[in-house]
Amino acid sequence: MTIASASTEPRPGGVRGRAAELRALREQAERGPSEKATRAQHAKGKLTARERIELLLDPGSFREVEQLRRHRATGFGLEAKKPYTDGVITGWGTVDDRTVFVYAHDFRIFGGALGEAHATKIHKIMDMAIAAGAPLVSLNDGAGARIQEGVSALAGYGGIFQRNTKASGVIPQISVMLGPCAGGAAYSPALTDFVFMVRETSQMFITGPDVVKAVTGEEISQNGLGGADVHAETSGVCHFAYDDEETCLAEVRYLLSLLPQNNRENAPRVPCDDPADRRTEDLLDLVPAEGSRPYDMAKVIEELVDDGEYLEVHERWARNIICALARMDGQVVGIVANQPQTLAGVLDIEASEKAARFVQMCDAFNIPILTLLDVPGFLPGVDQEHGGIIRHGAKLLYAYCNATVPRISLILRKAYGGAYIVMDSQSIGADLTYAWPTNEIAVMGAEGAANVIFRRQIADAEDPEAMRARMVKEYKSELMHPYYAAERGLVDDVIDPAETREVLIRSLAMLRTKHADLPSRKHGNPPQ
């Protein structure tokens, strides 16, 4: 009997030969179009798609799918250019050993522009993420639709938008903007939960500077029109902005550590060395008793949360309200807090939108909400009224009323009028409402109330100013003393500021098994 040779030389057509051919094709796909294209990417201060994936995921965990996919388009020279991957890398891996799906535009191939095959790959990985119940991260660096493929490319965006919407509130969706993204490439991120951007190298806009100039005559740079700082400070499109890609992707990993895999799970709880019963004595000196004096609410949050660490969302937009993710005794909580240091902490259009979106995100992903109140009211003004403050303020009201996660509110000082009700008051469903002994819960400030209630007495008095001062004092003593709300059951307890962390953590622990259902309906019709 003849025994086959054990030679390791690949044979044409044999399994070894086919395997060697496969390895060569994979190496070609992983190298990309050329070293020149890679150098050009690096020269712009940008990493390649694969380098970005390596930074995002745990080492060696990435499993690519459809690596050998190529487009089938003809015309405009496309039939001669059929690179593997078709300009987008798709697959899954892990972040801190938890599954994450990812797709990354490869700007070196067709400028990352989306064609039919390119879009189909994205559709598939999005479907896989939804089916597996795991987060989806998109690394965006694409020039929009591939014009040479016509309406087929455009339809590909429709499929992405439809899946973004289907996945909304089901799995966390994070968009990382790492290059210029225009048109359809900007719409998809706007449908996701969080948008990250890198200064100087990433931009988002529907129509670029050239179109703006042609239509309106305005001249503006890409960064001036849709750069990271513009969207982080002015438009509110960007939640997080960083100076470089490495820091940006590290922060994406951190954000993922604070989120659950899907809407059926809770965010991961971690061991905590910061004692749950740690006294917060510094709060006694940090917050002035006088309601008109400003202070930094961020320092209050630092005192309350584990190790003083939290991740602020929209840090540079609508700074009169703080939205942050943190841990308390290892449990993730979402914090909404008025910032007296900016605009006295009033609610305006942008603050209402920012907080409403954050509350909805927390509720969708089973994250308890802690609300810290020090709010004098809604911002008055013609611009606010004409801009729709009623409608925008109602968004926050709707978001809180619709939330079924554990909800705890703490009133530090002022809680006036409609803004007090909107900021998760007991009357709209907060599970527990606490107040410090410095609280002032009222329809409005004492001065304004006295001017309305005692208008005639003040006008008829021999000394109107003295009468006004006396009436203000009387109103404060009768209707604004710190125990007025507690006496009427509008707060569950008045607590010592030094015991705040312990009280909140014990309350969160009690509410961990809370279960609440909304009435059966197709969906609500919130104010837009």
Architecture blueprint of SSEs:
Blueprint: H1 15-31, H2 35-43, H3 49-56, E1 63-65, E2 88-95, E3 98-105, H4 116-132, E4 136-140, H5 151-167, E5 173-177, E6 180-182, H6 184-190, E7 194-198, E8 203-205, H7 209-216, H8 222-226, H9 228-235, E9 240-242, H10 245-257, H11 283-286, H12 297-304, E10 310-313, E11 321-328, E12 331-338, H13 349-364, E13 369-375, H14 382-386, H15 389-402, E14 407-416, H16 417-422, E15 432-435, E16 440-442, H17 446-453, H18 455-460, H19 464-479, H20 484-487, E17 493-494, H21 500-510
Helix pairs in contact: 4-5, 5-6, 13-15, 17-19
Overall description:
This protein has helices at residues 15-31, 35-43, 49-56, 116-132, 151-167, 184-190, 209-216, 222-226, 228-235, 245-257, 283-286, 297-304, 349-364, 382-386, 389-402, 417-422, 446-453, 455-460, 464-479, 484-487, 500-510; strands at 63-65, 88-95, 98-105, 136-140, 173-177, 180-182, 194-198, 203-205, 240-242, 310-313, 321-328, 331-338, 369-375, 407-416, 432-435, 440-442, 493-494. By secondary structure, the chain is an alpha/beta fold. Helix 13 (349-364) runs parallel beside helix 15 and helix 17 crosses helix 19. The model is unreliable at 1-7 (pLDDT under 50). The strands form three sheets. Strands 10, 11, 12, 13, 14, 15, 16 and 17 form an eight-stranded mixed β-sheet that branches. Strands 1-2-3-4-5-7-9 form a seven-stranded mixed β-sheet, sandwiched between helices. It starts with 14 loop residues before the first helix and ends in an 18-residue tail after the last helix. It has two domains: 33-257, Alpha-Beta Complex (2-enoyl-CoA Hydratase, Chain A, domain 1); 283-445 and 480-513, 2-enoyl-CoA Hydratase, Chain A, domain 1, CATH 3.90.226.10. It is 39% helix and 17% strand. Strand 4, helix 5 (151-167) and strand 5 (173-177) form a beta-alpha-beta unit. The radius of gyration is 28 Å and the shape is elongated.
